[in-house]
Amino acid sequence: MRVGVITFPGSLDDRDAQRAVKLGGGEPVALWHGDHDLKNVDAIVLPGGFSYGDYLRAGAIAAHSPIMSEVITAANAGMPVLGICNGFQILVEAHLLPGGLVRNDHGDFVCRDQKLRVENVNTAWSNDFKEGEEIIIPLKNGEGGYIADQDTLDRLEGEGQVVFRYLEVNPNGSANDIAGISNARGNVVGLMPHPEHATEAGFGPDTRAAMRSGTDGLTFFTSAISSLMANA
Question: CB of 229 within 8 A of CB of 221?
Fold first, then answer.
């Protein structure tokens, strides 16, 4: 299965995402923000970074890149789309996901290994997890506070669109400890932590078993491949 990873000006984690796709069993395909060609991919990842320097608002300019018109059309047709950190910011700015991301409530950039709870295993990017499973995924952001009006929060909670929730500490002031959400259909998922940095032993978070041994992020990518295979 071909999974496209879009590079925007200022993307930092596109190569990491490509490697995560490969480790998860997919074929990574490099996509360019200025193109209108999705190269016949089966799924799309919007990686982390600082697209366009985070000018105006994080993700706001990238949401109007030429390729995003193709991403929006594909997402609305059911293609799996994952937005990681800056990619999550782009998805909300493109109105593929509700709400918004604002400056961390403490005002500082945060970088830590973050414990999450998996709340919804019925999305294209979480179906290989177990509901209630606790995972550790690296987190690094300065504008990661998730916000939405109360009606939107109630709908997300009531309809199971909260996919991942922060545990033990809320690192950025996100409403309801929300770390990641999906659209109603479950094919579009955005989260602030970086699963692509927890896919390979020796390079992931520390665990009780060994330093840098955490690979919980790999399940995001195997989930997408499983979902695509099931629908092939």
Answer: no
Task: Catalytic residue, from 33, 70, 85, 143: name it.
Answer: 85
Residues 143, 194, 197, 200: which is the catalytic one? 194
Q: Which of 70, 119, 196, 200 is catalytic?
A: 196
Q: What phi and psi values does residue 102 have, to the nearest 5 degrees?
A: -125, 175
Query: Is residue 196 flagged as an active site residue?
Result: yes
The answer to whether 85 is a known catalytic residue is yes
User: What is the reported pTM?
Assistant: 0.97
CATH of region 2-230, choose from 3.40.50.1370, 3.40.50.880, 3.40.50.300, 3.40.50.2000: 3.40.50.880
pLDDT score for 66: 97
108-132 pLDDT, tens digit per residue, is 999 999 999 999 999 999 999 999 9
111 is catalytic: no
In this predicted model, what pLDDT tens digit does every residue of 143-175 receive, in sequence order? 999 999 999 999 999 999 999 999 999 999 999
Neighbour order of strands in the sheet with 2-7: 27-32, 2-7, 43-46, 81-84, 188-191, 178-182, 162-166, 110-118, 134-141
